[in-house]
C-alpha cells in the first residue's frame, strides 16, 4: 500500500514537471481577460449558486468553463448556452481496500492530479472561481494553476469544509484539524473572496485573516408562484409516480381531470382547488448530517394525533425532495410510521419541476442546521422566491434570512414545530389566517433576484481586480 502511494506521488510530481513548460508558453501569450473557469469539486447539477455564477458571467460578456462532477442534470439554460463549456471531472469512489486514512489519501492525490491536468488542458482564464467546500485539495491546485498561468483565484465560501467533516469524525479528529489548517493557509492565498453571510464575512476576517465580500443567495427568476393550471399539470404528472398526488375520489363527470389538490372542469377548462384538499408541505434536503429529519417526523406524529383528537386540521401531503447519503436511513424511518391523515413521499424531481412544486406548496420546512453556524440554506431562498412561507430550525445566523413572524417562523425542536403546524393549518385554507399573511408579506417585500444582485455586488469586483 505504501509503495502504491509513493508511486502515485511520483506520478503527480512528474506530471507537474511536464506541465511547467506548457504553462510558461501559455503565460507568455497574455491573459484571457474575458474567460472564467468555475470549479466545483462536487455535483454541478446540485450546485445552483455556481450555475448562477456561470450564467451571470456569460450575460456580462465572459466565456465560462464550468468543471465538476456531472451526476445530475444542470439547468437547461446552462446546457444550451454556447459560451459555457461544461467539463466533467472524474469522481473517485470509495476504495475497497486499506484503512480509511489510506483511502482518503489516495482519493486526495487522485483528485489533485486529475484536477491539475484538467485545468492545464483548458484555455487560460483571467479568473479561477472555486466553490468551497469542498476545498481539499481544490484550493491548492487552483492556486498553483493560477501561479503557473497568471489566473487570479476567487473562492466562494459557502461554508467551512472542516466543520462538515467534523459532523462525521468529531471536531478533534486529526483529519478535521488538518482540513482546518489547510483551508486557513490556502484560503489566504486567494485574490478575492466571496461568502454567503455577514456572519461568515466577520468570522473570516477575525479568525482567518481573510477579507471577503458578502454575496447573499438570491432566487433565480424562475422561482415564483405557480399559476393554478400549471399546478394542476404538475400534480397530474407527479401522480403517475407518487400516490400522494393522486385524486382521493373519482369526479362525477368522467371527463374532469382531478388530482389530490385540483381539478379541471371538463366543459369550461377552468382549474380550481378541491374543497377539503390536503395541505401541501414541502422540504428539500441533501440528506446529510446537518439536517435532522427526525424532528419533522416527530412533529408530524404530534400533528396526526391532533387530527385524531378532533382538531380542525387538514390532511397533509409532505414532500421531501433531494438525494444524499442518509436518504435510505430516513426512508426506513418513514416506512415505520403508520399515518392515517399524512402522506410522506421522497421524490427526486426534474430540475424544471422543482420550482413549480415550491410555487404550488402551502408551507416550506427547513431543517438545515449549519455545521459552522455561518451559512444559510439556499432552499429557503428559493422558497421565498416562490412566496412560500417557511418554518426553519434555528441556528446562529438564520436571522439574516428568516424574519420570525414576518416571512415565516423559527423553531427549536419538534414540539415547537408541531405547535407551529397546528397554528398555521388551523381552519386551512383560511385566507385570513397566519399562513396567508406570511405569503402576502413575501409578495409585498422587495425580493431582489440573482441577476440584479450579482450585477450590483459581484460584477464590480471582477471589473476592479
Automatic annotation (TrEMBL):
Metabolic or biological pathway: Protein modification; protein glycosylation
Matching SUPFAM superfamilies: UDP-Glycosyltransferase/glycogen phosphorylase
Residue span, Glycosyl transferase family domain: 279-426
Pfam families in the record: Glyco_transf_4, Glycos_transf_1
Reaction catalysis annotation: an N,N'-diacetylchitobiosyl-diphospho-di-trans,poly-cis-dolichol + GDP-alpha-D-mannose = a beta-D-Man-(1->4)-beta-D-GlcNAc-(1->4)-alpha-D-GlcNAc-diphospho-di-trans,poly-cis-dolichol + GDP + H(+)
Segments passing through the bilayer: 6-24
Family: Belongs to the glycosyltransferase group 1 family. Glycosyltransferase 33 subfamily.
PANTHER family for this protein: BETA1,4 MANNOSYLTRANSFERASE, CHITOBIOSYLDIPHOSPHODOLICHOL BETA-MANNOSYLTRANSFERASE
Protein name, UniProt field: Chitobiosyldiphosphodolichol beta-mannosyltransferase
Source species: Suricata suricatta (Meerkat)
Source organism phylogeny: Eukaryota, Metazoa, Chordata, Craniata, Vertebrata
Gene behind this protein: ALG1
